[in-house]
Specification:
By secondary structure, this protein is an alpha/beta fold. The protein is built from 4 helices and 5 strands. A 5-stranded parallel sheet has the order 3-2-1-4-5, sandwiched between helices.
């Protein structure tokens, strides 16, 4: 396998942590070198609230097109190959399947803030990946290295540090 035949699978959606995960994966891909498979798994966030709306499917297509454009903007100037792929189903199993099909070096996802909705969705994806993956899983906080803004929670374990149980 030549270096550019290696892959990193990156979960990508509308959340800030996903953008940081993509930037982190692009940086890693340059060092390895590896290709990026930017994967978006369709979920209810991609659709309008009203499933009876005449443009329900079209709105999802527009949301995915906007995310692909955002990924392309983030990867502008990235010299290694990358591709954007849309999947249907549960995010964690889809990401595991993509990683297996491409024999990916690792799966990279954003670690969302531990708010109720984020924990129920992204937290369960992270938990499923780390429990079932046969390769490394990298969880990237929304404010990763080289980004502005405070991290999602204290990293030093000092006074005031609060870590939710998973």
């Amino acid at each position: 396998m030549t270096p550019c035949d290696q892959w990193l699978v990156v979960g990508f959606d509308r959340h800030p942590a996903a953008r940081t995960a993509l930037e982190t994966a692009a940086s890693l891909a340059l060092r390895l070198p590896a290709r990026l498979l930017v994967a978006h798994v369709l979920d209810l966030d991609d659709y309008p609230l009203d499933p009876d709306a005449a443009d329900w499917e079209a709105a999802a297509g527009q949301a995915v097109a906007a995310e692909r454009a955002q990924a392309a903007d983030l990867l502008t100037g990235h010299p290694l190959p990358w591709t954007f792929q849309v999947e249907h189903g549960e995010p964690a199993p889809r990401l595991l399947d993509l990683a297996a099909r491409h024999d990916a070096l690792m799966i990279v996802i954003g670690a969302a803030r531990h708010e109720l909705g984020a924990h129920l969705l992204t937290g369960s994806v992270a938990r499923h990946l780390t429990q079932h993956a046969d390769r490394p899983v990298l969880l990237v906080p929304a404010a990763g290295p080289g980004t502005s803004g405070p991290p999602d929670r204290p990293r030093n374990g000092g006074q005031g540090a609060s870590y939710p149980r998973e």
